[in-house]
Fold this protein.
Amino acid sequence: MIEFPAVQKQVIRNHYDVSTLFYRLLWGPHIHHGYWEGQESSARAQVQLTERLARLAEVQPRSRVIDIGCGMGGSSVWLARNLQCEVTGVTLSAVQKKWATSAAWLRGVRPRPKFLRADAEQIEFPAGTADLLWSIECTEHLFNKPAFFRRSAEWLRPGGRFALLAWLAGKDPLTASQVEQTKAVCKGMFCPSLGSQDDYVSWFEQAGYRVLKTGLWTRQVEQTWEICLQRVNRSGVRLLARLLGQNHTLFLDHFQAILDAYRSGAMEYGYFVAEKIG
Ligand SMILES: C[S@@+](CC[C@H](N)C(=O)[O-])C[C@H]1O[C@@H](n2cnc3c(N)ncnc32)[C@H](O)[C@@H]1O
């Protein structure tokens, strides 16, 4: 695991409160990578990532889902619309909670997802009441990842599943320059640590799961950052971010760092489907 302890939770919250608008303008309603099979648009690639995870996890219609780190509600809305799931989305950001709630209401989504502003490292749900925990690109921001996996496993019924996508530290041993590249990403994207694929597997196992599927999609997703870089360079987004303060330009300035880290093997992008042993 690569650690960058200087990150603070309040800074992560503030980042999403302020930058959600940038993500929406630059990218779309999903704050996650796209998955490319060919020449599809970035909007299509974002939905493809969601679809692929749902297929891998074999999400059952009408599942009770907790979407951990739900952003603007992109996945929650998709799961409710396409699989009639009853979704509760959790986000650290008050802005995202309002955004997701309004988006679901305006789009007439049924069953209507519920969104909470809460810290996934603190919130409690009744034991055994969820069929599926779903999390796309949130665990990077958590401070005690093994403890989160142990606590959240309690919310699942036996046999329930966790479907997860995450930015990963590359395979050990990393060279000194790969470690520096990964730390630069942690700094710019507010991640107190990045676990490797092996770290995630062992956190799942220690929390009472069997890992059913895991693999890497780095090559299929990295185009995300080429497109984002082009859009930042062509638009006035950097200027707007500068007006809002240094932290908000920080993440824009690190898009190239992520691309470099993926290309050098310092970072990977991984999927995991795990089942709670019952
Ligand atoms: C990169 S965005 C991903 C959003 C969403 N999963 C998606 O794919 O569109 C990261 C999300 O994690 C949330 N997050 C970060 N730390 C969190 C925490 N401790 N508790 C709850 N949400 C958190 C942020 O508020 C944000 O919504």
